[in-house]
Amino acid sequence: MAKKPSDDQEQDGGKIGGKIATRADDYPQWYQDVIREAELAEPAKVVKGCMVIKPHGYAIWEKIQRDLDARFKATGHRNAYFPVLIPQSFITKEAEHVEGFAPELAVVTHAGGEQLEEPYVVRPTSETIIGYYFGKWISSYRDLPLLVNQWANVMRWEKRTRMFLRTTEFLWQEGHTAHASHEDAKDEVERMLNVYGDFAEQVMAMPVIRGIKTDSEKFAGALTSMCIEAMMQDGKALQAGTSHDLGQNFGRAFDVKFQTEGGGLDYVWQTSWGVSTRLVGGLIMTHSDDAGLVLPPRLAPIHAVIVPIYRKEEEHAAVMEAAERIKAALSEIDISPPRSRYRDFVEVVIDDRPLRPGAKFYEWERRGVPVRIELGPKDLAKGQVCVKMRVDSAAGSGKEFIPEADFIAGFRARLDTFQSELLRLARARMHARMVTIDTWDEFLAAFSGEQSTFAWCHWDGTRETEAAIKEKTKATIRCIPLPGQGPDPEPGTCVFSGKPSRQRVLIAKAY
RNA sequence: CGAGAUGUGGCGCAGUCUGGUGAGCGCGCCGGUCUGGGGGACCGGAGGCCGCGGGUUCAAAUCCCGCCAUCUCGACCA
């Protein structure tokens, strides 16, 4: 209801495209703006709580998928696919599972113009139907371990949705495995957690804390859940991946028995683990800045954009010829990650649209292209290119002039440097904000209002204390850190109750 | 699901209180000329069932009722 229509426009003059709120002013708005302006996705207004993932956003997901899929294959898993509809009765077979998911199920009651005898639920996750099939496939210890993964969509009727972070329908992968012993299952849970952790850090350049969920935060139906937690720029935590030890819970519920080596009969030990399109949200909130999206090269659909600069038509022709030459040379460069099982090559776009160069600069920055090449007559004359990296300091300065041959020869190293620089910056941010807190007053101060941080605190281990902390501050115990992921275990007293504690846990507000 | 806000061209908004003048503005978009190393200027254009459905009225973007969606906050969650 601002009376001055020009107010907002003053701020960013005649900017092309929409505006992006600053992180300091309004972090949630900034997040929405980046998604819109980078053309990653938009809300599916015609379907409540769902989103349309646009090509640029989906391309990032495809890169995530490709790398993870290779990691799953490398650890012995194979892909399979199970139905999107699950008989309602399946969901109810595991007590905790049904309790956890019942409130958010979408149920199909009619099909083909008739009411169904038994309703189907749209899968919120597939433990139950996969458990059922595991029962049919497994009869002997020789059938174990059984290691499958599924790339799929799932649906959870969430009360409150946020683009990429929590939508009614989302894309993910869910690994499901069955083992002959609890030890084997536990190894699997930890193995896949490490796959996620390595992926987050090496590919997404997103540092994470690996840990174990408290009982009240664990997966519905699991014995224990492990997780990776990432810190967003506003100090809140994002659960970026989970890996669950399901024990024999689903084996019992679906009667998945096998003959042991010794001739006995036992229920299988199962695991499940997953990451989702939520990772894209994490990516945005880890690296992006007030100018828009920032992408690590390993996930960037486009690595470099060439903006031709010219005045006369002869110049245009010459510049375009050089641009094509550079594009061809760059496109040859293999930027596959070390030891990867897929090939990745540099993707280059030449932006020859009839716009002012400056307009193009802003646009490609918003989309998160790591490298910008400005190519004009002066550069051709000197055999050089003008390069600007998509770093946080951004706008105006930071242009390098490099001989063309050197630039091409050093391109892969340039991307690698950028990649590791993003990880370094994100790590620095996370560590700068991490605190150890020992008093309740300090704790309240750290989490007052919308504030959040990663706080290492002693906790007495009780559900009551956990609930009380959450009730009073909105902060939750994100995880009990694995060795090396937090402060070394030392006894202390609970930050809330003052009772004895064995080690510090990670507390933060969470997305 | 509770509270609040919002819904007008692709984006951002004004207009709504107090119903009636051709539904406007900035940016973007299309055509043209000059331009071109960080959001250029000028000229000429296109684009709207004013979220949806009812109602009141001679007349509704505007008033009333219902619904839907989005955003923020809360309870629940990847």
Written description of the protein model:
With 511 residues, the chain is an alpha+beta fold. It folds into 3 domains: 29-287, Bira Bifunctional Protein, Domain 2 (BirA Bifunctional Protein, domain 2); 302-420, Anticodon-binding domain (Rossmann fold, 3-Layer(aba) Sandwich), CATH 3.40.50; 433-508, C-terminal domain of ProRS (Translation Initiation Factor IF3). Helix content is 35%, strand content 25%. The chain is built from 16 helices and 25 strands. Strands 3-7-8-14-11-10-9-22-25-21-20 form an 11-stranded mixed sheet, sandwiched between helices. It has a 5-stranded mixed sheet with strand order 16-15-17-18-19, sandwiched between helices. β20 (435-436), α15 and β21 (455-458) form a beta-alpha-beta unit. α3 (55-74) crosses α7. The chain is globular. The two termini are 30 Å apart. Residues 1-16 have low confidence and may be disordered. The structure holds one RNA strand of 78 nucleotides.
Offer a concise description of the structure.
This protein is an alpha+beta fold and 511 residues long. It is built from 16 helices and 25 strands. Helix 3 packs across helix 7 (182-203).
